Amino acid sequence: MVELGLTPYLILGAFLFACGLLCIATKRNAVGILMGVELVLNAANVNFVACARYVPSFGLEGQVFALLVIVLAAGEAAVALAIILNFYNNHATVDVDKADELKG
Amino acid sequence: MSLDLILFTAIASATALSALTVVFSRNIVRSALWLLLTLIGVSLLYFLLGAEFVGATQLIVYVGGTMVLVVFGVMLTAQQQFLKIRTRPQEWLVGGILAGSLFVLLVNASLKMGEGKAPPPSEALPGAGQIGVGFLTTYLLPFEIISVHLLVVLIGAAYLARAKRKPKEAPSDG
Fold it and tell me: Is residue B56 within a helix (H) or strand (E), and if so which, with residue range?
C-alpha cells in the first residue's frame, strides 16, 4: 500500500519551477517571459498548499500565503502587460533583445 | 494503490506535460493555451489536497482573469514578424543547464524534506470560513497591505497602458 506523501508534490513544484525558469531564460517574446513567471509562481503555490496539507499546524498559513501569491500574480500580470504594450507601441516589437537602449 | 495516488499521477503528469509544452511550443498562442491547461491542472491538485477555497480562487482569478489578460496581450502585440522570433541554440543550452541543475537540487531538497511526512494527517484543512476569520484577525495587516497594493497596481497599470496622444510639433518617444 503506497501512500501519497509530501514528496511527490514538492517534486512537481520543482518541475514546474524548472519549466518556468527555462521559459524565462529561452523565450524572446516578452509575453512568453510573463508566462514563465506565472509558472514559477504556481510552483511556489503548489509547495505552499502541499505543506498546508502535510505539515502539522500549517493548515491555515499555507492557504493564506497561497491566496496572497495569487493576488500578487494578478497584479504582476497587469503591470507587466501594461509595460509590454507600452514597449510595443514605441518599438513595434515584443522581442526583449531589442530593449537595449539603457545598455551602457 | 489508493484513489488519491491514481488521481495525483494522472493530474500531475498532465500538468507537467502542459508545462513542458508551454516552454517548447514556438507559437505564443499555443503556449498560452497550454499554460491555461497547466493552471487548471494545478487547481485540480488543490482540490485533491483538500484546499477547495484556494482551488476555486485559482480557477476564478488565474484562469478567468490573468489568462484573459495574457491572451489580450498576445492578441494586441501579434504581428507577422512576431512569429519569427527564434531562440538561439546556445541560449537553449545555457537555460537548459541552469534549469536542469536547479531541478536536481530542488528534488534533492524535497526528498530530504519529505522524509517522515508520509502518513497524511486525518484532520481536514481549514475551510473558507476559517480562512476568512484568519484574514480578518491574525492576518489583517497582510490582507490590508495586499488590498491597497492591488488597488495601486491596477491604477498604475491603467495609467501605463492608456492611449497617449503625441504632440505634433515635438514628437517624443517616451
Answer: helix B52-57
Residue A69 to residue A75: CA distance in whole angstroms: 10
Q: For residues B125 and B99, what is the distance between their CA atoms, to the nearest angstrom?
A: 33
ipTM of this predicted structure: 0.90
- Tell whether the torsion through CA atoms of A95, A96, A97 and A100 is positive or negative: positive
**Residues of B with CB below 8 A from A74's CB?**
61-62, 65-66, 150
Q: At what angle do helices B128-136 and B140-160 cross, to 10 degrees?
A: 90
Model pLDDT for residues A62-87, shown as the tens digit of each residue? 999 999 999 999 999 999 999 988 88
Q: How does DSSP classify residue B115?
A: T
CA distance A33 to chain B (A): 10
Q: Name the B residues in 121-150 with CB < 8 Å from any A CB.
A: 121, 123, 125-126, 130-131, 134-135, 139, 142, 146, 149-150
